[in-house]
């Protein structure tokens, strides 16, 4: 499946916000956004950004969400269409659908430092969903689902290092993680209040409503 493979730091600079696309590196001095928080290709003497129109703001918020979860436009539009069909508030439905992706759940459990890394781990078949191997990052989980490591993957150096690091990682309240068994369960679906996102879902709804 197609995915974004360009420099991730350019994305943060383009939208004007740090989206934490490179995990722990984003907290260090090596973060490109911290070193040069101006759009790619910028050559002016001032760091002042041009004022955006309402449409421009809506587009930026949509792009933030899309890049945060690692989706291309067609994939993201499908999620939005599904959110529109569900009962309730479209923006909140969209957030919940995006959070239900298996690669995001792996990231939320602390099994990966970033969503791109979580996506790669899932694609390589390191996880079991309810005891069955799956390598589909876009697979949607539901309350009660269990995510665990495949037995063969527990022998990797990455897993052995993660066992020691997992103790210091914080897990959202809507998930439950057994750090001894390195297996997690989706307790319930998150609410918008449970999620700390760097984009405005209302602006995304307005963008697609035009």
Tell me what the structure shows.
This protein is an alpha+beta fold and 210 residues long. The chain has two domains: 95 residues, Ribosomal protein S4/S9, N-terminal domain (Ribosomal Protein S4 Delta 41, Chain A, domain 1, Orthogonal Bundle); 85 residues, Structural Genomics Hypothetical 15.5 Kd Protein In mrcA-pckA Intergenic Region, Chain A (Roll), CATH 3.10.290.10. The chain has nine helices and five strands; from the N terminus they run αααααααβββαββα. Strands 2-1-3-5-4 form a five-stranded antiparallel sheet, covered by helices on one side. Strand 4 and strand 5 form a beta hairpin. Helix 3 packs across helix 9, helix 4 packs across helix 5 and helix 6 crosses helix 7. The longest helix has 15 residues. It starts with 7 loop residues before the first helix and ends with a helix. The model has no long low-confidence stretch (mean pLDDT 85).
């Amino acid at each position: 499946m197609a995915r974004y493979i360009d420099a991730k730091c350019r994305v943060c600079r383009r939208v004007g916000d740090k989206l934490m696309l490179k995990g722990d590196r984003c907290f260090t001095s090596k973060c490109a956004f911290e070193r040069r928080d101006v759009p790619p290709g910028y050559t002016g003497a001032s760091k002042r950004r041009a004022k955006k129109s309402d449409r421009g703001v809506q587009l930026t918020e949509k792009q933030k969400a899309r890049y945060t979860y690692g989706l291309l436009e067609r994939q993201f539009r499908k999620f939005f269409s599904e959110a529109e069909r569900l009962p309730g508030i479209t923006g909140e439905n969209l957030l919940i659908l995006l959070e239900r992706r298996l690669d995001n759940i792996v990231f939320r459990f602390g099994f990966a430092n970033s969503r791109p890394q979580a996506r790669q781990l899932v694609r390589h078949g390191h996880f079991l969903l309810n005891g069955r191997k799956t390598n589909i990052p876009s697979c949607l989980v539901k309350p009660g689902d269990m995510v665990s490591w495949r037995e063969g993957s527990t022998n990797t150096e990455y897993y052995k290092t993660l066992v020691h690091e997992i103790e210091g990682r914080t897990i959202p309240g809507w998930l439950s993680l057994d750090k001894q068994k390195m297996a997690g369960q989706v307790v319930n679906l998150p609410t918008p209040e449970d999620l700390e996102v760097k984009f405005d879902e209302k602006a995304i709804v307005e963008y697609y409503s035009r």
